[in-house]
Write a structure and sequence with these properties.
The chain is mainly alpha-helical. Helix content is about 75%, strand content about 0%. The two termini are about 30 Å apart.
């Protein structure tokens, strides 16, 4: 998935994506950062429960979601840097 851009996935640029959501890029970055923080708190709570299998699969799903969000955040930050360089 990391090889695809917003253009590829949504059919619009990241700027256009932000316009549709009525957000600035910095707002989108902050939202993703907050999502990661929330997920990490939930992962910690879930790990403390020591759930038996198959309930413990939730831990894996939360962890994978954190990793996905972290990659997404890095793409946004990289785009912001490259977009700033063009100005």
């Amino acid at each position: 998935m990391s090889n695809y851009t917003y253009d590829d996935i949504y059919g619009i640029s990241l700027d256009e994506y932000c316009k549709w959501h009525n957000l600035k890029l910095d707002d989108l970055i902050k939202k993703v950062q907050v999502d990661i923080d929330i997920l990490k708190v939930n992962l910690d709570k879930t790990l403390r429960k020591k759930l038996p299998y198959p309930e413990s699969y939730l831990e894996t799903v939360i962890f994978q979601t954190i990793k996905k969000k972290e990659k997404h955040l890095q793409h946004l930050l990289d785009w912001k840097v490259s977009d700033s360089a063009l100005e």
